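Progress narrative, work stream C.
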Amino acid sequence: MIDGLLSMRAVDFLDILLVSFIVYWLLLFIRGTRAVQMLFGLLVLLIMYVFSKKAGMVTFQWLVGNFLGNLLVVLVVIFQSEIRRALAKIGQWQLLGGNRAAPGPTVLDELGKSAFLLAGSRIGAIFLLERKVGLEDFVEHGKRLDAVFSRELAEAIFSVSSPIHDGAAVVRGNRIEAAGVILPIPPPSLETQGMGTRHRAAFGAASETDAVAVVVSEETGNVTVFSNRVVRRADSPEELRSMLGRLFGEERVPDAST
């Protein structure tokens, strides 16, 4: 064994280190998602296949063996959502710069106030704030506005008399890129248990991309922030402003009242 270690080249160590890092990163990436349960199910099936092979169970061995024989296709079909998220995550590692413009402090201030004004009137809303991953796929399912963000515009969009009050408003930089955006609703899971349609849609969008979703509940008036499968509730405009400032990498979040 020692001779084997001594005969290993530097590139072999790098190879092992790289594979270990990828496996570790993937496990962290799927932690807390239903992908873990599906992966565990495949592991159980594999153990049963090995046992059936040793026990001479011909029919079961043939059935599971054919299934596992197309394992690559099975993994792509089962984990297609996770694969898309992983590739998008890798795509965020921009080596040559070119980051998208983040909402400015004034926009975050206005958004914090808008959300709680809507909450006070029990008007439901979703603000989807773009970060590094583009949201053009979502924008195409709404009405393109490309207007400077303002509290008045946000209230007009989500007013019950507005023809585009259903759906989300996509915020890109300091502008509302589109409104009335219909977000896909993810399948039920432990993470979305107990959520309404609006919150599930926001959770799905914030999970599929690196976007930040701010949701106002028309039933309870609660304001919730979704980011990278993490759900947080904000109890005041100042707290919401502080959350958004941290998510968009502000070193110092100014007081929202100033």
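Work stream C, second folded protein:
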Amino acid sequence: MSLEDKRIIVMATDGFEDSEFNEPFQRLQTEQASVTIVSTNESVITGKDGTTYDVDIHVSEVDAEDYDALVLPGGVANPDKLRTDEDAVRIVREFFEQHKPVSAICHAPWMLIEADVLDGRTITSWPSLRTDVENAGAIWVDKEVVVDEGLTTSRNPDDLPAFCDKMVEEILEGKHAEQTA
């Protein structure tokens, strides 16, 4: 099975962790998904190591109803900037309200915390987010990949192979009734 009929958002801004954007993005393209880069930036985003991508659509113009899944790359600066943008947070919340798969790696769970969608969930993240995750009502575990009803999380770039596999699996499964805000 491929993702050829799936429309996926990868949401990021300047300072994303290059590998955490590149590998999921490339995997989605390999799986024939239609991938849309969404950002608070107007035209280009730059990773912390210099990788650049053209922005397809500004966060203010996104309707989550038009997409099947959301991918949130990490890096410290990326989610820290995104979580201050009301539209970026709205998008995350809408994906949960619509029961759609969401994948977040490394520091990206800051977006999940800001969107207030973690209560009662089990996730993983970069270890320094543990207290933030637990304060948001989630159970934090130290595993390479955790899947909780359509929410896929991983800790760091070393986890990318497992993260990408589970990301694709959850997107193929589609909506999850328990994936709620």
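The domain at 7-173 is CATH 3.40.50.880 (Rossmann fold). No further action is required on this item.
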